[in-house]
Amino acid sequence: MSVNTHNTQDFRVFSLSIEFLTTLYGLFMVIWGISISLISGSSSITSMIPAFIGVPLAFIGFISMIKPTFRKALMHIAVVIGIIAFLGGLDFFRGMFNNYYAGLSKLMLLITGFVYVYFCVQSFIYVRRQKNLQSN
User: Fold this and answer.
1) Residue 77, H or E segment
2) Tens digits of per-residue pLDDT, 67-126?
3) Do residues 33 and 57 touch, judged by C-beta distance below 8 A?
């Protein structure tokens, strides 16, 4: 592991660093996409959309943990992916109950995407405040 390049304390969510949370969220999305596809018996590639969003998130979170020098850029990319997940979940309101499993996946994307972006923004604010306190 590389040494932390900045002197700020890490932001924590449920005692987890935001990088580790990103990795867990990405893995959750991959498992969700595969599970929903298998449970519903769907042969459509769209049932794997959560997995397609989760793979880069898990990768970004993992790389951020082992290479802290890239953390800032990678976590900004991760929050953009989280916003995409949230926006994709908004499709839930278009056709709420046409397909139970698709609606469930969209609702999951909406809620978890929002919560993930919220935690990322809180992390950015926390780091900025820590840097401002250290500079004073």
Assistant:
1) helix 71-89
2) 999 999 999 999 999 999 999 999 988 876 778 888 999 999 999 999 999 999 999 999
3) no
13's torsion region: left (phi>0), alpha (psi -120 to 50) or beta?
beta
Cβ atoms of residues 26 and 51 within 8 Å: no
> Which contiguous run of DSSP H or E holds residue 27?
helix 18-40
Written as six digits, the tokens of 56 are 């880069």
Region at 41 (left for phi over 0; alpha for psi -120 to 50; beta for the rest) = left
For 129, the token pair is: 């405040």
pLDDT tens track for 13-38? 888 999 999 999 999 999 999 999 99
User: pTM of the full predicted structure?
Assistant: 0.87
Question: What are the residue ranges spanned by the domains of the chain?
Answer: 15-135
Work out the number of other CB atoms within 10 angstroms of the CB of residue 57.
25
Six-digit token string for 38 = 């298998």
